Predict the 3D structure of the following.
Amino acid sequence: MANSARGLRADEALVLVLLAAIWGASFLFIKVALDDVGPLTVVATRLVLGVVGIGAWVLKTRGRRGVRRMIAGVRLGDALLLAATASAIPFVLISEAETTISSSLAGILNAAVPLLTALIALKVDPIGRLRGWRSVGLLVGFAGVALVAGSDVGGSSAGIVAMLGAVTLYAVGSHVAKLRFGSVDPLGVALIQTATAAAMVVPFALVLDRPTHAPGLDTFAALAALGLGGTAFAFCLFYWLLARVGPQHTVAVTYLAPIFAIAYGAAILDERLTATALVGAVVIIGGELITALPGRRRAEKTPVEALEEAVA
């Protein structure tokens, strides 16, 4: 059983950094793929490949009976609600946003998910809500979001709004997962969420988002990396780490992924952020760290909560 009180060992720290590097690169892969295909195609391909990868891993490690036990009793309405809020719609909004804003800016704004999750908890989760001085972290974090959104970062305000809509839905999805899927194996939740989201998005992609030309090899590579790497392989790393060190250490990937997103954007796509946007990124992460510090009677995050806060 995971012991979150101890520090990370070298191999665990390496996996944490690798996971952050993979999820931080998701915004880069989306940006590259959008050169040849539309947002719906990006999302549909990512989800289908994610289902293939996660499904193969679950079948190998749990067997068919294990898969049936995972999904037994899950209501279709709950699966649709989780898929819509935690994958399908936010994935589309992020891809749409990256048609007009940089991948690094998308990565920074995505870091606000834990802040919005905590804000919504004030109304819907009496046990998990922030209390006392830790609630100051919300004010600090949202000040950082305002700095980033209001800085001269290029692109369109519509892209920023779409990105903020995506992170808001991620936060809603976190609470849906906690309230409706608390008794389901977390890896089963990932499979249900991804498969249901694929079923929702693929028909729209086939009808509305047909490519106008043959995609290049870089697009195929980006889509494969996004689906098999950023979705399937990343989930496997996440659950390996979660089992070893617990949710409190694992969710730290949320703070590291934006750093990688900024680095990839600058080094590979020659993206540049203003000093104000970079300061805003630091303030967002600082606010999250304040809200994450121990408080009295603090409830331990469930594995599903940690996943929904961390995933890109």
